[in-house]
Amino acid sequence: MQYITGPWTLIGGKFNSMSGVEVPNSVSDTNITRSILYGHSPFTHTGVRAVNALSDATTLTMGVNNGWDQVSGMTVSKTGEFAINQAFTKDTSLLFDVYDGAESVPTSLGWAGAIPVGTITNMYSANAGTPLSGIRSGNRTLLDMVFTSNLTPSLTFILNADHSSQQNAVIGPLGQVGTEMYWGWAGYLNYQIDDQYRVSFRAEQLHDLSGVAVAAPGTAPGSNTVREATLTLGYAPVKDFELRAELRGDSADKGVFAASNGILYQNMVTYGLQGIYKF
Asked: Long-range pairs for 180-185 at CB < 8 Å and ≥24 separation?
């Protein structure tokens, strides 16, 4: 539901999060795989949002919702969102957004199901594994920044930086409770070679202070840093179809990438091929 009056746009229902660069609809993304930061940020929210165009260059957004990826609230309190988007020139802009509110957290470090191979999943977000022994809540704060610059008509640079904290979280193998924190950045270079060919490069790093947010079952406890670099080539022989080929390399200070034999490795290489038809 959307209502527009003057400089205000009011939105109610389920909508995409303002955080990050990538969106749930992969057609709008430039890579096949998702970034690590994408998996540690909210995807959607259900609530109300008000957007005010203060000027041609400045937009202010405020809202209240049920939290990270929750249609129905899992806590008594709501999550607030605030963002300001400033366009410095027609080619350069900066978005800063904040999400703050109580979110449900597991009461143990167990999962009810295995994490898919190669997936880095924030166990405190709604899309994470189900906790084995109940749920409690704690305040979660996400600070997100996205800087975008069209360096040339064909070349775009994007920088995304995040800092997230979760209170009342299990942060150790013996059930220690505290504040889980992680922060990271992701850089994108997108180059349109011609009408048919394009290339996209992404590099990123996420540091997890307690190691819980990026851990797979069996990962050694303690802080961990994960990194990845991805190169994607897009070929569009016709307007409505694109074929994508991708090479991605991931690494971590501690093993988080599970092989079919159950062994956790510190490095992983991924190849991908994707066809997208737009209608």
From this structure: 180/124, 180/208, 180/209, 180/210, 180/212, 180/213, 181/209, 181/210, 182/40, 182/206, 182/207, 182/208, 182/209, 182/213, 182/214, 183/207, 184/36, 184/37, 184/40, 185/37, 185/159, 185/160, 185/161
> Per the CATH hierarchy, to which homologous superfamily does domain 2-277 belong?
Porin (2.40.160.10)
> How confident is the model at residue 116, as a pLDDT?
34
Query: From CA 128, how far away is CA 109, in angstroms rounded?
Result: 12
Global confidence as pTM: 0.86
- The three-state secondary structure class of 259 is coil
pLDDT tens profile 201-243: 999 999 999 888 888 888 888 899 999 999 999 999 999 999 9
| In contact, 135 and 112? CB cutoff 8 Å | no
Residues 33, 246 contacting (CB under 8 angstroms): yes
**CA–CA distance, 138 with 179 (Å, rounded to integer):** 9
Distance CA 211, CA 226 (A): 10
Q: Are 159 and 95 contacting, i.e. CB atoms less than 8 angstroms apart?
A: no
Residues 69-118: tens digit of each pLDDT: 888 877 778 999 999 999 999 999 999 999 999 888 877 665 433 333 33
Radius of gyration of the chain (CA): 20
